[in-house]
C-alpha cells in the first residue's frame, strides 16, 4: 500500500521505487516478494482498477478520493482478483489500513466499495 501511494504521488518506475522502499523498510524475503508482486500488478493494471473503483463509488467522484484511499482500494481489488488470499481477509485488511492511515470514515467507505466489488466478482 505504501509503495502504491508513493507511486501514485510520483509515478516513479516501479523497480526503482521498490529498491528505494526496501532500503528503509524491513521484511522477510517472502514478504518482499509478495508485496512487490501486488504493487507491480496494481500499478500495471491501474486504469482497469480505477474503472472498477469508479463504478462502485456510489455518490462519490473518483477524482475526490484521497490518495491513500485510492492506493488501498487499488491494492485490495488487485489482490482479490489475483491471489489466493480469501477476499473477506483482503477486505478486512483494507478496512484496517484505511482506519490506520486515513480516517475512521474511510474505513466505512473502503468497506462499502470493496463489498460492492466483491459481490460483483462473485456474480460474474
From TrEMBL:
Give GO terms: molecular function aspect only: RNA binding
Give the NusB/RsmB/TIM44 domain ranges.
1-119
UniProt KW keywords: RNA-binding, Transcription, Transcription antitermination, Transcription regulation
Q: Is RNA-binding a UniProt keyword of this protein?
A: yes
Domain of life the protein comes from:
Bacteria
User: Family, per the entry?
Assistant: Belongs to the NusB family.
Q: What is this protein called?
A: Transcription antitermination protein NusB
Its ancestry begins with: Bacteria, Pseudomonadati, Acidobacteriota, Terriglobia, Candidatus Acidiferrales
Q: State the gene name recorded for this protein.
A: nusB
